Amino acid sequence: MGRGDGTGRLVSPDDADDTGAGILHVDMDAFYASVEVLDDPRLKGKPVIVGAVEGRGVVSSATYEARRFGVRSAMPVSQALRLCPNAITVAPHFERYLEMSARVMRIFRETTPLVEPLSIDEAFLDVRGARRLLGSPGEIARMLRRRVQDETGLTASVGAAATKHVAKMASTISKPDGLLVVAEHDTAAFLAERPVRALWGVGPKSADALESRGIHTVADILRTPRPVLERVLGAAMGDRVWRLSRGIDAREVETDRVEKSIGHEETFHDDIADPAILKAELLRLADRVAARLREHAWEARTVAIKVRFADFTTFTRAQTLPEPTAVGQRIGAAARDLLDALGVQMPVRLVGVRAENLVPAGAGGAALWDDDEEWRRVEGALDGAAARFGRGAVTRAAFLKGGRSIDALPSNPPVPPQRRDGGGA
């Protein structure tokens, strides 16, 4: 199994059997860091960390030269520099990443209309219908990698398989700058020797639970009775792991895939213990989330918060709203209620607000009366001001009192949500 630093990677020869491998997972290599190297060739071949070195910023991306020292995304930059003292730290340029992402996604959509973006730098492609025009899946994958490199200067790794799950596993194993093809009839053999942690959706806790019972590989899962898996992992996850270990994945590439959530989080320079400050920060984040919802014509049915305490213990809490909303005041009120229910057990290092279970604006129908009408009007005016003068030109008066120094980087800005009517949001 390939590791995050690129060691142990597996790639297929040009003549690899690609029978039935019509689903591609394309994943850009160290995307943010690669864009920085592209824009400053002096960084080529050097350990580069994308992130803010001041305060307590986190790593957004790192070149493979840095990853070989143990540097990982979401790691505090200070820790990354201890692991790799010679690393070059560069500030992120998210507008540039979005620009390059759009160019890459355009190449995908010129290859096949069946594209499902997963994030800013990865997507599934269904190329089963393109065989007559463009060739076999392996040929299409090689063509895609060449086009991406020729037209953007960046490299991509591709997994080709019969299912989304196996294609994603294959692209991970082939990184960086590789292609791994798993023919449909080779799926069982491919899966059997993979570690349980390689299965899509098996997180550290589930993996620990399996490994504590001697279940280390997919082959071990295959020998484990289904009821045992369900006792260890719970009914839903146990059933999912049982199916994925056997290559059973009926999910199709969803071209109208709706962004599942929109969120923002902040890491404080100094841990905060004052609930009033934390609630003000949650409201500020809620306003940012709501603005993005309105920008893309979505509303949220669920509000979630993330709280990381000084000892790095992290909690998430969620609340379903009576009606879907894109009003920052409503989202902020739910977030503050969730914080009250959680309690501030010790000083807080990070807070986040996320809108989940998104639906198109207005999908909830018109209520007899609108409790948020006044706030909706105010926030609409804020949107208008932002469009004319830039985001932040107008803000709540409460946010102007006693400025705080906050340093945070988005962990993975998503591709702008796609509207169900086929138009871009």
What's the name of the CATH homologous superfamily of the largest domain?
A: Reverse transcriptase/Diguanylate cyclase domain
Q: Uncertain runs with pLDDT below 50, 5 residues or more?
A: 365-370, 402-425
Strand order of the largest sheet: 5-6-1-7-8
Q: What is the second-level CATH architecture of the largest domain?
A: 2-Layer Sandwich
Name of the level-1 CATH class of the largest domain: Alpha Beta
Describe the 3D structure.
This protein is 38% helix and 19% strand. The protein is an alpha+beta fold. It folds into three domains: 1-185, 2-Layer Sandwich (Alpha-Beta Plaits); 193-245, 5' to 3' exonuclease, C-terminal subdomain (DNA polymerase, domain 1, Orthogonal Bundle), CATH 1.10.150; 261-400, DNA polymerase, Y-family, little finger domain (Dna Ligase, domain 1). Helix 7 (164-174) links the parallel strand 7 and strand 8. The longest helix has 21 residues, at 275-295. The protein starts with 22 loop residues before the first strand and ends in a 36-residue tail after the last helix.
